[in-house]
Design brief:
Largest sheet: 7 strands, mixed
GO molecular function, one term: transaminase activity
Oligomer: single chain
Bound molecules: 4'-deoxy-4'-aminopyridoxal-5'-phosphate
Family: Belongs to the class-III pyridoxal-phosphate-dependent aminotransferase family.
CATH superfamily of the largest domain: Type I PLP-dependent aspartate aminotransferase-like (Major domain)
Protein name: Aspartate aminotransferase family protein
Cofactor: pyridoxal 5'-phosphate
Structural class: alpha/beta
Distance between the termini: 22 Å
Keywords: Aminotransferase, Pyridoxal phosphate, Transferase
Number of strands: 15
Shape: globular
Strand content: 15-25%
Helix content: 40-55%
Length: about 450
């Protein structure tokens, strides 16, 4: 990308350090600068239009340019642009949103706690779990288990939960109390001759073996996404959750469902918890909660979690935790309006209606010889490319394909060589076809260029 002096691209390179980028490469190539968006499309500063095939970062459920969210923010800005929820204070939007989320929860939940990002929600979950263990007189019960390739954020604790090397390497992570168990990706993790059903059972056995090796009385909680997102869209094999959940129950280990991507319709139910019949004690929510129009996240906790925490805060005299922006009134007002849109337009029913086309077109990408596996559910999916097709370096072919998709007007995201697709939930059937027509053409062009 040629950078004109004083252009936005040049100023971006000069002044901004980016997330999930190679800073030296950034200095050379610059960034794609997006200016506006409408529906499933965004437009860059040069007027080129793209399908936002990732809904931003798996998040803009109702699409770009939704006026009702703009108006909800403006109304709240005028009335009360900021207030907090510390020290026995509150405000309408946070109260309404807490009530709404507890009512929407697919399993009994007792309280909502607000944070500003998925990372903070998971980080707060860990702190509350540790606080609870102390409250219960079980100070040794502090270890947390998550999964290899799980993604739970980037704060010191949530990055430790995340089971991806790039989030640990050179950051001196993970924290020693955080352990990782087997990733439920059948193709890469199965043993020779192991059936999918046996693999699902072995994942649960691996979890139990880890618990026993560490000492069950030291394990406080298990964190997992119903469907893994940023680790490459890993849909668990049949029988996985049925095998894993009894292990947690057996050792009295709390289950935290990270619904940051799955929540609010993505998998064809309001929550991934419903899709997989999960019984979490806590749920973390963000992204589609406000369609990312405002940064907001929430943690739902059941009564088993709440009661000891309440007792401990009473004993100490205060729950010493909270963010200035927790339950921010503008973010909460936008989230409430966003949830109204999701319900009024029955976006969950829409996902269910359109998912068969989405999944069929995704599976069709496997006709290209570069594609070695496709996987997905609802309106989320990935096509895994054979990295050997280009070079031994994992991720090189994914990056090349990503650039080709961009050229052809589709914003996707390569997690190494897995090309992810996670469009806004409002996408129409015709637009699903438009998205995959571009992906097919892009893959063909990459294949021909090799
Ligand atoms: N959990 C999951 C499942 C996520 O996908 C993400 C973000 N991709 C997070 C947590 C972290 O959220 P944030 O980037 O808002 O901190």
């Amino acid at each position: 990308m040629a950078q004109l002096p004083n252009s936005l691209e040049a100023r971006d390179t000069a002044f901004q350090l980016h997330s999930y980028a190679d800073a030296r490469r950034q200095e050379e190539t610059g960034a794609l600068v997006i200016e506006k968006g409408e529906g499933i499309y965004v437009e860059d500063i040069n007027g080129k239009r793209y399908i936002e095939g990732m809904a931003g970062l798996w998040s803009v459920a109702v699409g770009f340019g939704e006026k009702r969210l703009v108006d909800a923010a403006a109304r709240q800005m005028e009335k009360l642009p900021y207030y907090h929820t510390f020290t026995y204070k509150s405000h309408g939007p946070s109260i309404e949103l807490a009530e709404k989320l507890v009512e929407m929860a697919p399993v009994p939940m007792s309280k909502a706690y607000f944070t500003n990002s998925g990372s903070e929600a998971n980080d707060t979950a860990i702190k509350l779990i540790w606080y609870r263990s102390n409250a219960l007189g079980q100070p040794e019960r502090k270890k947390i288990i998550s999964r290899v390739r799980g993604y739970h954020g980037v704060t010191i604790a949530s990055a430790s939960l995340t089971g991806l090397p790039n989030n640990h390497r050179s950051f001196d992570l993970p924290l020693p109390q955080i352990l990782h168990t087997t990733c439920p990706h059948y193709r890469t993790m199965k043993k020779d001759g192991e059936s999918e059903a046996d693999f699902a059972k072995r994942c649960a056995q691996d979890l139990e073996d880890l618990i026993l090796a560490e000492g069950p009385e030291t394990i406080a909680a298990f964190f997992a996404e119903p469907v893994m997102g940023a680790g490459g869209v890993v849909v668990p094999p049949d029988g996985y959750w049925q095998a894993v959940q009894p292990v947690l129950k057996k050792y009295d280990i709390l289950f935290v469902a990270d619904e940051v991507i799955c929540g609010f319709g993505r998998t064809g139910n309001m929550f991934g918890t419903e899709t997989y019949n999960l019984q979490p004690d806590m749920m973390t929510l963000s992204k589609a909660l406000s369609s990312s129009y405002q940064p907001i996240s929430a943690l739902l906790i059941n009564d088993t979690v709440y009661q000891p925490i309440a007792d401990e805060s009473h004993k100490i005299g205060v729950l010493g935790h909270g963010y200035t922006g927790s339950g921010h009134p503008v973010a909460a007002a936008v989230a409430l309006e966003n949830l109204k849109i999701i319900e009024e337009r029955d976006l969950v029913g829409h996902v269910r209606a359109i998912a068969p086309t989405f999944q069929k077109r995704l599976a069709g990408l496997a006709e290209n010889p570069l594609v070695i596996e496709t996987r997905g559910i609802g309106l989320i999916g990935a096509a895994e490319l054979s990295h050997e097709a280009l070079a031994a370096t994992p991720g090189a072919l994914g990056a090349k394909t990503n650039a080709m998709f961009h050229d052809k007007g589709l914003i996707s995201r390569n997690m190494l060589d897995a090309m992810a697709f996670c469009p806004p939930l409002i996408i129409t059937e015709a637009q699903v076809n438009e998205l995959f027509d571009i992906a097919e053409a892009g893959l063909k062009a990459v294949q021909e260029s090799l």
